[in-house]
Design brief:
Chain lengths: 334, 335
Amino acid sequence: MPHIIASTAPRVSIVVPSYNVEATLEETLTALLAQTFQDLEVLVIDDGSSDRTAEIARSVPDRRLRLIRQKNRGLAGARNTGIFHARGTFIGFCDADDLWRPEKLAAHVHHLDSAPAVGISFSGSELIDTDSEPTGLSQQPRLTGITAAHVFKRNPIGNGSSPVIRRAALDAIAFRPEGETARDWWFDESFRQSEDIECWLRLALTTDWEIEGVPGLLTRYRVAPGGLSAGIDLQFAFWERMVEKLTPIAPEFFAREAPAARAYQLRYLARRAISAGNAPEAVARARASLAASLRPLVEEPAKTVTTLTATAVLATAGAGMIQRAMALVGRRAG
Amino acid sequence: MLRIAHLVDDQSAGGVTRYLSFISGTPGMAALARHQIVPVSRTRPASVHVKADLIVSHLAITWRGLPGLIALRARHAGTPLVHVEHSYSEGFTAANVPARARFFTLLRCSYALFDRIVAVSEGQGDWLTRRGLVQPDALTVIRPTVDLSGFRALPAPEGRLRHFGAIGRFDRQKGFDLLIQAFRDVPGDDLRLTLYGDGPERTRLEALAAGDVRIQFAGFAPDPVRAMRQCDVIAMPSRWEPFGIAASEARAARRPLLVSGVDGLADHVRLGAIRVNDPSVEGWTAALQRLAGAQMPTSLPPRRIEEQATIAGWRNLLGDLLAGGDPIALQQERA
């Protein structure tokens, strides 16, 4: 590895899982190295890229950057390798196409320093497009009083570039599955989707570390145009596998919360289908959501009604109408 | 002779009651002080007349009980008060407490009424200080125990390990549901899993085990030594376990012991238990499979006299509280 490790450990490690990200990596690294809180290391985990990812990471002239290369293990496997090599007391995550506002890390460090029971500190996110321009949409989750039920239903952490996590909290959920000889797992590498929520929920159900947010849209989260309608089935399958995996750990919790959480998940998939202009998919998911539970309608009536209306409009009037309707009624996403 | 009053509100046949039998019935403990077990109401512990040099609470802390603890402190303003925390731990909080800040406030308020808090394991003690519930200098760790001689006298299992056992109350705390699901996925017609116990989860556990003839329910075991004798391996997949005396019993009986590693079970891992750190069904299946049919190791760790450690813990605590940190002065005072 062509880097020099400083003699004293930095307070924060930022893990950047990177797979074929030559188009965006440099901008991401620039944003991370420009943080106002400077006592950090950035660990670029090149997860078996076939493009110029490693070359770009090497070309950044900053000794706080470390490049670690591995055969492809997927997002969870790249994050785990990052955690394994991280030397900081706090560990942040930023996907290689997302950006951090300059003051983001300072806010999380202050938060974790002043609230010793908090294990995961997160923030809201501004959604940006391929040119890093704001889309006008944002994720503004609940920040305090978060229980396992909130994590399960609404995932306030929002996306994989939002949290900064206390090392001690990660250590509390480390495990080593059969057949793994190299290092522990924190994220479950057998998941190709829903690996975030599986990790957060496992932490919420098996430890007493708090999950809490700081104000501000400190993460800039990039969304691909059009959405990925084709991935919806797979995404839902992994979400259900997460439920299946964690249910034996806390059966009463899942008996109580799974129907509503499933309804929220299906509502989210319906919204993604709407964004992709896929009317049959949107109708199917919206119907399934209502069949799973009516609690989203009670707990978040505006957003649920908007989703149902948009589904109906899409099914009857087409995609152009939807773009205008969504622009009128909601500025939030997720 | 020193008089110690142990206040209890739980008369069930659980670990607390068995520990109190050890405290009041063991010569080593009797040499330290005269121990009086005083049953009290959880909400009104001060209503019973107590005359003692030291009062030890074994009560479960609750919001409803807090005024009673304040009254206890007021009534015995000049007597050192010690609380032994038998109930709460990180795993308990994770599994049972959605509103943690409020719960921690209760614990901080209650603990502040005592001169010393006794944690029942290093794992629990670490949690109490990590969460700022107890100041480090007000915390003492004394692992509870029972008379383990019956377990030590058992012959170690021989040959291949085939019979898995789980002993304890059928409560979701114990995680036997997870164990049954995991065991079902372990191949081997000659393997057996026997669950000794009873409790509110019984019907659910039986339903989970239905169809797998290798899984048996032996009912409540009034003699845990006999239950232990029948098992080659003991499994404790507990969701929370402030200490886990059953783990001490399994180790004393030289049974390979699989534990979830939460709370006090981490102490047992340091003392020789096998940690299953993947809490999923698959994780437990893999751990069971690794032992199933394996040859029992011939050389075992030396036997430990855990009772002596518990007695020494109390001796040091009494020295701290009653003789300015000098256990020898304590003995002279007594003589």
